[in-house]
Amino acid sequence: MGYEGDGHDAPVRHRAENIVADEKVAASRRGFLKSAGLGLAGATLAGLSGTAAQAAETPIGDKWWPSKWGAEDQAGASNHMGPQKTLEAVQNIKTGKVHSLGHVYEADMPLFGQRVFALRTPGMPTGGTFGDNKIIWNDEFLATEIGQVGTQFDGLGHIGVVTGEPGDHTEKRLYNGVTMAEAASPYGLKKLGIEHVKPFFTPGVLIDVMGLKGAMLEAGTEITVADLEAALERQGLSGDAIRPGDVVVIRSGWGLLWKEDNERYNSGEPGIGLEAARYLAEKQVSLVGADCWGVEVVPNPDSTQVFPAHQELLVRHGIYLHENLNLESLTADASWRFAYIFAPLPIKGATGSPGNPLAVT
């Protein structure tokens, strides 16, 4: 098999060079979150009246629990995985070429807010010398938010909704209605940890919205259902190409800024809105990925909403997200269908996972 993806020889710049960039990124992200908060406050002062708003059981609509997979389910849409989806995925393998969809993890990659990635080698060598064969070895120490940096897989414990009083942990709910009172622990999630996710081996569909538009989409540009369907049509596919349990990855072109302009990359992003999230949920996909850091449009065109697609997919439907994907080699080959393979690191209690997803064509 041939392999395509990032090289592993990119130079790591001195950490000090990142301090100013980190501050700018944090400021820009605080800025759009603050703007969203002001928008929410303004909407509240305006009354937030209306029949639909008054009728909703929660801030994101009617209650979403129990899950269709049962009140005790912690695997979400990975329940679609199984022998049938594996065999369907194999049908997409025509050349045997393997595309790496992950970026290299390094200190100068774009990082959300104040997150860090610091790798240290404790001594060179770390251990030895032992035996007549004079063996030595090296280890590493890594300090980071392991599941939420670089190419990252969002688990079901990552996002939730406050459904009652802000201080009431029994009214802070995650997927399947799991409350923070049930899940919270200083040592990781007691429920919905990433260890419950089933490994993915399933058909994947690439939707090239940048190819449709002819240029990289700008931050704040919402990818609509019409965009998704038009891009599929351009690729010789239709909405029927997406089947229950499939993975959908969306190229906006934003990933071209990765390590080229981190400040701009982190300042916002194009992505799907709530309409497209609901469309994909109706298709019963198992995962949505993108070449940007949050999959969904930031800032949201509706200033009262902050990451609503995360709530729609992760919380309401148990559909996973894969962020910061490298979709360029897959796009260059016009490989619109592929086998998506990924097994999250089974870190007990983690909210997400690093790793290198593969697309086999």
UniProtKB/TrEMBL annotation:
InterPro entries associated with the record: KFase/CYL (IPR007325), KFase_sf (IPR037175), TAT_signal (IPR006311)
GO biological process: L-tryptophan catabolic process to kynurenine
Record field: transmembrane: none
An example molecular function term from Gene Ontology annotations: arylformamidase activity
Protein name listed in UniProt: Cyclase family protein
